[in-house]
Amino acid sequence: MPEVVVLDGGMGKELRRIGAPFGQPEWSALALMEQPPMVAQAHHNFVDAGADVLITNTYGVVPHHIGADRFESTGYELASLAGRIARDVADAAERDILVAGSLPPLFGSYRPERFDAEAAPSLWRVLFDALDPWVDLWLGETIGGLAEFEVLAKLVAGDDRPFWAAFALSDELHEGRARLRTGVGVNAIAVAAGEVCAAVLFNCSQPEVITAAIPELAKALREQGSSTRFGAYANAFAAGVVEDGAYASNERTLERRSDLTPDRYAGFARRWIEDGATIVGGCCDIYPAHIGMLRSLVDSF
Q1: Cβ-count burial of 292 within 10 angstroms (0-12 exposed, 13-18 middle, 19+ buried)?
Q2: Are 108 and 168 a contacting pair, CB within 8 Å?
Q3: What's the pLDDT tens digit per position in 198-243?
Q4: 92 phi/psi in degrees, rounded to 5
Q5: How many CA atoms lie within 13 A of 158 on its CB side?
Q6: Cα 50 versus chain centre, distance
Q7: Which pTM was predicted?
Q8: CA-to-CA separations, 62 to 25, 30, 78, 89, 237, in angstroms, rounded
Q9: For 238-283, how does the pLDDT look when each residue is reduced to its tens digit (9 = 90+)?
């Protein structure tokens, strides 16, 4: 069986859990701005739990979260700091840890209709250039549509480091099948990303929906003859919160569903691995305790 890689968990909520500055609209960027050592502590917590990959704390370092003026004046500096913190923690570990450079949604999570293909390249370029000295691979996170993916793919084209693309799925299945909020199905994701990416992932989505999507992704990649790795890192938000209009980016912090214990989350991950996933981790409200269970699960195979 191929080696399974364990990603870290949700940085924003881990920062809140340990008492770091945290809030809307800055999200996880607030700790980066006000108390960087706590960002390092959060990374250490995930390494200690068993993560093989640390994702840079750049998810909130975009104009949507910190404002256009602050991004223009300090975006590069903040992203560079996030990269250096992750690199330092990784290098201090007693085992090999990779650092993934997070290239997050620029115009709000779960809002693919807001994507601006003309504005995006220069904004992502700030993060790319700032993270360049520190990272081992690139990770496009919470990708909402194929237009967004295509711009990201062009950004990293020519760089010799792996590109992992993580797509966010709708909370609802359509006739039993997973899809993006743009309506794009899993097969189209595999066709678009399978030959471009070193890994295709699903993130910041319901674990139940991911569980439906993983076998379909595996089949689609297999039919293409692609050897691209795949996997997932889910969130622990309540189902339907985004679709029912209760979610408002930068205005409300979603709370976790109480049933997604570390043991139950590992049960979902077991299904993903059995279906061929070789990368598993956690997104929002998935904590070091969950990552520790994933580490134990992976080590048991």
Answers
A1: buried
A2: no
A3: 999 999 999 999 999 999 999 999 999 999 999 999 999 987 655 5
A4: -85, -10
A5: 3
A6: 17
A7: 0.95
A8: 11, 12, 10, 23, 22
A9: 876 555 444 555 555 677 788 999 999 999 999 999 999 999 999 9
